Amino acid sequence: MLTSPYSRPEFDPYESNDVPHGESPLWPAPTSHTGVDARLQLPGSKSLTNRELVLAALAHVPTLVRRPLHSRDTSLMVEALRSLGASISEVPGDGAFGSDWLITPGELIGSTTIDVGLAGTVMRFLPPVAALALGPTTFDGDAGARRRPMSVTISSLRSLGVDISDEGRGALPFTVHGTGRVTGGELTIDASSSSQFVSGLLLSAARFENGLDLRHSGDRLPSIPHIDMTLDVLRSRGVQADSPEPGRWVVHPGNISGGEVDIEPDLSNAAPFLAAALVAGGSVTIDGWPDTTTQVGNDLLTLLPLFGATVHRDGSSVTVIGTGHITGVTLDLTTGGELAPALVALAALAETESTITGIGHIRHHETDRLAALATEINKLGGNVIELDDGLHIVPAPLHGGEWMTYEDHRMATAGALIGLRVPGVRIENIATTAKTLPEFPHLWLAVVGAPTA
Question: What residue segments make up the domains of the chain, in order of their start?
């Protein structure tokens, strides 16, 4: 059933924004009048960096993480792991975006408070780690984080015998009373709202006394590639981790190895940059694209041609070429919901209608992304209709105006993409991109050809 976002009084755009309206400066999104011709590199993957940091803290020997992402989400992970007993120091590296990290595992000790910010990976990956620590660990974060679902993490750990105090909220804040051990064994959960519930349990499972035999009981599971990524990083560290059947994952108990780990560039963060070639016309090349990867951003190479792009690969470089004409699409994005904001922005600028589904779960990301995207595009004159599981986008002339971000980095980059075509788009709190890509404003101006100083 089609539903207009304006018929949903329970969604107040400003209510989901942790920065009061009007207090942060508006960032004028640059508009391209001559097309783009850009080549760039991107910082490391947030998903891979935070997974590798958790495994490094649980390993039995040190790990050198090379070319990691330095952002708010990864900084929160580093500080949280330090508070639990890991030693993490910066060492010189050859990456273009900051130092490497040397992680030396130590005895896990609680009696600390962890600030998760608005990072889903921190709030869902670390409670199982805290259960392996001695002493209580309290988790809390931004106001937006308190609205994100955590009941699956809490109930699953309780089923494994972990004592958690949450006063019945099923959300932040809560305290994990770690005893230094988790029995593990068989567990069934419903992870329909986020694959992070699965990954969070799997990452620590090799340290459980009996490992973990985890089953998903829901009708559908979003973002399966992220679970594949988790299994891949576990296996690369010598952990026996399998998926013997769909919706079931088995991690055997054992040591987690260390050594050196290279972090791939963040391919999901490539979405707005590659899409810029479609919006403005011209070409954008990203260097350092991995040959094989579990990152869902790799799907851009097959998704962007559906909108009218031409994609070329030359070794480790990917080039997207566009003409400025965008074709509407019908897509099921169940496996790649984090790409939705950029692709919805493309659809809002397309010449024919689009329907993008399989993304109902992104209502539970940094904000309700479906409602936020519909609200902001419609404010600019668009015609976006919310579906139960996605969005229907009808072409409409857009005009300038304020674009709210709701403390959501992907809302900020989606607004920048629309502003590339539509003059006068002003983005509230562009700094929220520091969550996963602090360099975004500088890189975006460089791609567009606008002055960066």
Answer: 5-42+265-448, 46-262
Per the DSSP assignment, residues forming a β-bridge with 287 are 317
Q: Is residue 340 within 8 Å of residue 374, measured between CB atoms?
A: no
Q: How far apart are CA 272 and CA 266, in angstroms?
A: 12
Distance in angstroms between the alpha carbons of the first and the last residue of the chain: 48
**What confidence tens digit (pLDDT) does each residue in 117-169 have?**
999 999 999 999 999 999 999 999 999 899 888 999 999 999 999 999 999 99
Q: What residues are labeled active site?
A: 338
H-only helix segments in 192-263? 196-205, 224-236
pLDDT of residue 19: 37
- H/E stretch holding 385 reads strand 383-387
Type of residue found at 313 = R
What is the Cα gyration radius of the chain?
Answer: 21
Q: Considering the domain delimited by 5-42+265-448, tell me its CATH architecture.
A: Alpha-beta prism (3.65)
Same fold for the domain at 5-42+265-448 and the one at 46-262? yes
Residues in CB range of 425: below 8 A, 6 or more apart? 28, 29, 31, 380, 400, 401, 403, 415, 416, 418, 419
Question: What's the CA gap between 40 and 29, in Å, rounded?
Answer: 19
Q: Do β-strands 282-287 and 248-251 pair in parallel, antiparallel, or remain unpaired?
A: unpaired
